[in-house]
Amino acid sequence: MNLPFIEAFTHGGRFHQRPRLLVVHSTEGPMSRGNARALAGPGFFGGPKAGTSAHAIFDPAEGVEMVKPDHVAFHVGPGGNGFSIGTEHCGRVSLTKEQWLSPDARAMLRRSAEWNAQYARALDIPPRWLSLTALAAGQSGFCTHNDIRLVFGGTTHSDPGRNFPYAWYMDQVQAFHAGKTPPEDDMPLTDADFHRIRLEVITALNDPTHQYLQDELAPIKDGLKAVQENQARLAEAVRHLRPQN
Question: 149-164: per-residue pLDDT in tens?
Fold first, then answer.
């Protein structure tokens, strides 16, 4: 997967060791189309203003590469820069789970997942989220800026936040890593979705005009009726078998 390249103003030289981490970030800015290219430009990462960099940045419309994957980007502080590749996503720590799974967000994260999957393969990095213990032990995999802060220090950022869809994102990465294309509508249910569907099902079950459901439920209702009748006959038989006083 090739991305347009806009070189970051600030970055290091070539890696002295093969990267073992793929680090996920959020920009703490709007999730808007065109924002990746704008931030990669001279007004921020492409100029001296930022003082930091990342290997790539993504928004809902596109991704932009800013530091070549064989060079060090300054994205997580001295504790992790020398052995990690960093990916920025237009969004904020404060986003809800529903916002992180909106159509725009999913378009952005799918593109990012595909980009990261290719480097996971190239660098022999397993497509898995690392626990803090595994990260501290030097294992390879995916982590967040906040994980680096907690384990290695040297940075104050806590992105991308607890509502980032980690499991869904890693499902995307693993699919691309395996050479598959995950389905476009492969999205987990949110709590709001679950409650909405539950209400729809309850409403349909209590609607006698919903013929399809009534037809599907008919065998079940007949079975329950038969069980109840059998229980009644069994109870009657047991009553007659009891000794009479």
Answer: 999 999 999 999 999 9
Residue pair 65/5 in contact by the 8 Å Cβ criterion: yes
| 138 within a domain of the structure (yes/no) | yes
Provide the number of structural domains found in the chain. Answer: 2
Residues 139 and 204 in one domain: no
Output the CA torsion sign for 79, 37, 60, 28.
Answer: positive
Dist CA 54 CA 45 (whole Å): 8
What confidence category does residue 232 fall into, taking pLDDT thresholds of 50, 70 and 90? confident
The answer to whether residues 40 and 139 belong to one domain is yes
Instruction: Quick: pLDDT tens for 132-143.
Output: 999 999 999 999
Tokens of 182: 């995950």
Alpha helices, H only, 124-186:
132-136, 145-151, 166-177
Tokens 């930091």 — which residue? Answer: 52
Provide the token pair at 215. 């037809």
What does the buried/exposed string (b/e) look like for 41-65 if buried means 16 or more CB atoms within 10 Å of the residue's CB?
A: eeebbbeeebebbbbbbbbbbbbbb
Secondary structure class of 122 (helix, strand, coil): helix
Q: Which domain holds residue 199?
A: 192-241
Which of 64, 79, 86 has its CA nearest to residue 11? Answer: 86
What percentage of residues in the chain have a pLDDT greater than 70?
Answer: 80
Looking at the structure, tell me whether residues 136 and 210 fall in a common domain: no
